[in-house]
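Renewal narrative, Specific Aim 1. Our central claim is that a sequence can be written position by position from structural information alone. The example that follows is taken directly from our test logs and has not been curated for this report. It begins with the structure tokens describing the chain, in the order in which they were read.
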């Protein structure tokens, strides 16, 4: 979901609000891009990124740092947009 989808104007429907909340509060550190099957080619049992590069301890640390940074930014954006939303029943001017 793009950042624009987290704007206050898009939080008006319950489905959009739930999707934005879920994205902002999702633990992305467990979902980094190296969790692909070890049975994919070349079939050597080595965990690899989707581009074929092997996953190393250093790359796991880097990916976790990047995921944490993204997650923090998504949460900050969500909180900022929620703060802009008027209370229920109050129209915007």
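The sequence written for that structure reads:
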């Amino acid at each position: 979901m793009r950042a624009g989808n987290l704007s206050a104007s898009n939080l008006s429907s319950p489905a959009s609000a739930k999707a934005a909340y879920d994205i902002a509060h999702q633990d992305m550190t467990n979902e980094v891009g190296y969790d692909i099957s070890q049975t994919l080619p070349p079939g050597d049992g080595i965990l690899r990124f989707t581009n074929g590069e092997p996953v190393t301890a250093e790359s796991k640390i880097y990916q976790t740092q990047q995921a944490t940074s993204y997650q923090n930014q998504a949460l900050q954006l969500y909180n900022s947009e929620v703060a802009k939303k008027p209370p229920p029943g109050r129209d915007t001017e």
